[in-house]
Amino acid sequence: MGNCLGSSDQFVTRFSTSSAASTAKASSSTATTGKFSSFSSSSFEQSSGSSVRSIEDLSFPDGRILDEPNLQIFSLAELKIATKNFKPVAFLGEGGFGKVYRGWFEDRTLNSSKNAVGMVVAVKKLNSDSMQGLEQWQSEVNFLGRLSHPNLVKLLGYCMEDNELLLVYEFMPKGSLENHLFRRGTAFEPLSWNLRLKIAIGAAQGLAFLHSSEKQIIYRDFKASNVLLDANYTAKLSDFGLAKNGPSASNSHITTRIIGTHGYTAPEYVATGHLYVKSDVYGFGVVLLEMLSGQRALDLNRPKGQHNLVDWAKPFLLDKRKVLRLMDPRLEGQYPSEGALQAAQLTLRCIARKPKNRPSMNEVVQILEEIEAKNRRSREAKVALNQHKVRSHGKAPMNP
Ligand SMILES: Nc1ncnc2c1ncn2[C@@H]1O[C@H](COP(=O)(O)OP(=O)(O)OP(=O)(O)O)[C@@H](O)[C@H]1O
Ligand SMILES: [Mg+2]
Question: Which residues does the annotated region (Disordered) include (predicted)?
Fold first, then answer.
């Protein structure tokens, strides 16, 4: 869950420790509106109309931005049936804006299923008392509803009824990266080095897609809880409530009220409200650091001087001899030191103080893929060597 921040003059900064409960997220009533934000709330006040619905399987491996949100409209009654009336048994998790429930639909026809069989979805029910929730909800529909990419969670539809705002997503069976890195228990086995690389590459590809779209999209809320994992640990970004269109060609940044999550937000943005595409790269660097170290971006339970992961870890990243001391003990040393050093160097570049010194997300993807390829080659070489040893041992003359 997030530790969200707003500019101090307008919002009470909400802090939480690593284990704290959900915190509310602030959202601006004066936020600049981008191209996607022209979709007004009245556009949503359509009835669910046609009863024949199905999920179109539009998959665009390289991603696609649609002209209009391609979403289903659900009635509250349908979502109540699908989630067993939002009962605790269907509860999946809670964030700053509301609770998330598991829901069931009869296969791809999207008729609610009472019997917890059929297609599983995730239903986010926004806290009904929050104006901020409305803005977040609209932004989610405007951005995510139009985006299609293998590394972005699919938004299937929404409901706006009786002062209730709900969003229906594809279900991500492995939950959030945050849970895997920091929660303990049998449901959260430590992630191996290979899986960490796979997840980092998937998430980086999601951001790279947003950044390289014609009208760049700044995600603004990159953090481990917003990286969700499918059954194969493919990473998908969720939560576009804070997303913004990037600057026009003549500008390097947009200026906006400061909002985001403590520990992940780029220093230039916190200091000036200037938001760059590269501000997302900083957030990515912080998550990479969390994945390497197994430590949260911000944790008030750590000893004094170690609360902020970036401040604490930077000296380790700068010194090659110290990097390995930073690595997550849950990896049990099962990673190639060369790959770890390269990932640490990349992290350092991503969290550079000046946005222009950070790599683009395309470059990040490329470097991570190189680390992964080397990793794979050395694994294959080891397997080949072992096979060779077994074969030669098999042929070797028996000891007298
Ligand atoms: N599509 C989904 N499939 C499966 N589980 C989900 C899905 N979306 C959310 N969840 C679960 O619900 C939890 C809460 O998600 P939510 O996005 O509301 O909050 P958050 O990301 O933890 O915090 P924040 O509000 O600061 O973004 C997630 O951590 C995850 O475990
Ligand atoms: Mg989230």
Answer: 378-400
As a whole number, mean pLDDT of residues 74-102 equals 93
Distance CA 137, CA 43 (A): 13
Straight-line distance from the first to the last Cα atom of the chain, in angstroms, rounded to the nearest whole number? 66
CA torsion angle 331 337 341 343 (round to 10) = -50
pLDDT in tens, 195-230: 999 999 999 999 999 999 888 999 999 999 999 999
Show me where the domains of the chain are located. Answer: 8-170, 175-382
pTM of the full predicted structure? Answer: 0.84
CATH homologous superfamily of 175-382: Transferase(Phosphotransferase) domain 1 (1.10.510.10)
Is position 57 annotated as part of the catalytic site? no
Please name the residue that has the structure tokens 């008030």: 300
- Is the CB of 120 inside a 6 Å radius of any atom of ligand 1? no
According to CATH, the superfamily of the domain at 8-170 is Phosphorylase Kinase; domain 1 (3.30.200.20)
**Among 225, 229, 236, 237, residue to substitute to test ligand 1 (most atoms within 8 Å of Cβ):** 225
What does the alpha-carbon distance between residue 260 and residue 354 come to, in Å, rounded to a whole number?
A: 18
